[in-house]
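Lab meeting, item 3. Inverse folding demo.
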């Protein structure tokens, strides 16, 4: 006699039941931890913005963020304005750092006017303009926070990734790569936007020339480097009208 549990219908119903139970548990957990998850995202974004403008605990060649329990205090101290650029409109928004760059990129592809967050910071008598950008590496998303002065000369940078190859493309979040960008010009000698290329054929491996619109590539990470180059060029170009208006 066939057992009830041997029937295909039992197996299907059991599988459906498990999916519902597990799904409910995960949904409950996600809901219960939502505040903590959102808080961690806020802290991470603020840390990255501060790092790009040089508010960090770096010593020697090591990379170190400010302490998490200080990030809110430092963000309020050093970030004087948060702006949202949308077409010709520029508004202040204290929650601009929460804008989802990936979602805004998708909206732009659908023909909507994209919102561009920009953070203005003050440190040691200097003004920094920090732009969050996002692109595509070899395997998945890459992103950065680029701090610039009013002439679009890079004053600091923070890069990270979701799944680049360890020891190769993943090294975009190492100081030896990020520090090379400080002082690099995004405009060429004529004032035209050019971006910064990650170049294997770079004739300036010590990165002495800051007006060549190039930094040295990471060995074995060509596709990731190309992704960084494309991200810098396509994303930061969007901020060009804002910087032109600064000089008017």
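The presenter then showed the designed sequence:
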């Amino acid at each position: 006699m066939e057992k009830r549990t041997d029937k295909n219908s039992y197996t299907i119903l059991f599988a459906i039941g498990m999916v519902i139970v597990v799904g409910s548990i995960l949904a409950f957990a996600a809901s219960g931890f939502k505040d903590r998850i959102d808080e961690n995202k806020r802290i991470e974004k603020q840390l990255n913005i501060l790092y790009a403008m040089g508010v960090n605990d770096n010593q020697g060649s090591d990379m170190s963020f400010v302490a998490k329990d200080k990030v809110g205090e430092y963000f309020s101290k050093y970030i004087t304005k948060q702006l949202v650029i949308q077409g010709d409109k520029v508004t202040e928004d204290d929650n601009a750092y929460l804008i989802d760059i990936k979602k805004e990129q998708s909206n732009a592809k659908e023909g909507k006017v994209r919102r561009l967050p920009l953070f203005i910071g003050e440190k040691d008598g200097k003004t920094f303009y920090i732009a969050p950008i996002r692109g595509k590496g070899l395997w998945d998303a890459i992103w950065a926070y680029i701090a610039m002065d009013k002439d679009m000369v890079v004053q600091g940078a923070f890069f990270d990734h979701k799944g680049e190859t360890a020891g190769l493309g993943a090294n975009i979040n190492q100081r030896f790569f990020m520090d090379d960008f400080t002082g690099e010009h995004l405009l060429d000698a004529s004032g035209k936007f050019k971006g910064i290329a990650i170049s294997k054929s770079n004739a300036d491996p010590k990165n002495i020339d800051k007006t060549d619109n190039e930094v040295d590539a990471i060995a074995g990470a060509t596709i990731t480097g190309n992704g960084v180059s494309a991200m810098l060029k396509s994303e930061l170009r969007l901020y060009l009208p804002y910087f032109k208006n600064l000089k008017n």
